[in-house]
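The passage that follows is intended for readers who have already worked through the single-chain material. We present the inputs for a multi-component assembly, then the predicted structure in tokenized form, and finally a short commentary. You are encouraged to pause after the input and sketch how you expect the pieces to fit together before reading on.
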Amino acid sequence: MAEQPMFFLFLSAVLFGLGATGVAVRRNPLVMFMCIEMMLNAANLALLTFARYPIAEPRTAGGPLDGPVFVFVVMFVAAAEAVVGLAIIITIFRSRQNVDVDDLSAMKG
Amino acid sequence: MDDLLLWLLAILSIASALGVIGSSQAVHSALSLTVNLLVMAVLYLFLGAEFLGLAQVLIYAGAVMVLFLFAVTLLAPREEALFHLKGNPSRLLGLFVGMVLAVMLAALMTRYPQTAASPDFHGSIQAFGKLVSSAYVLPFEATAFVLLVALMGAVVLGKKEPRG
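Having made your guess, compare it with the prediction:
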């Protein structure tokens, strides 16, 4: 019963919602980043489920493996994003010894 | 057997997600996220995407998490008073919006038809390698370029600027 698209899609929806909640609730940029990674993972799970249980026969370049290639690209972009984002957070920390997103209002209009 | 395992994995992933957003120490959040990412890798294997499961363990649970733990130990962020919801309307609002988003997404997902698993879906390393070296060469190379740019960006950001 569990091995159906609905199971994975629901799980992905719940994880995405939890990640969004985390981004909205937490004030520590590191934890917010972790929540963003969680949301990306939830989206990846949904993409893989769509590829595994297609509605119609895919007729594009790669055939049935288009979805996994997309997931692959998302994964690497997420890794790149984590590198640059953490570097930015550490740079901010270096200049003001404190990382709390509520205090980071220097770029406000 | 498979059903039981899948439900267990689902519960574990949701519990670890709650751990990420609910622990006041950033290190605990990072460790919960590691559990979450590993569970995701197993789910990818269940969906037949072997290569992506391996990549998940190597890239996310390996490289990205090490980076996160480095950042957490380097910055040593102070403990967050998470459960002081009184007098903190934005936090309550965030909680509400997140829950609404989850419910709406789940409602949207119910519209997906009950289809059978695609018979010609092979997420093996071999099939994947053939694909990224033929039909998807350009995206593959673009990913490599993105990684290079990210590397350079991190070096530029981390460089000590001469003052004045």
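Commentary: Chain A has a mean pLDDT of 84. Chain A touches chain B through 73 residues (CB under 8 Å). How closely did your sketch match?
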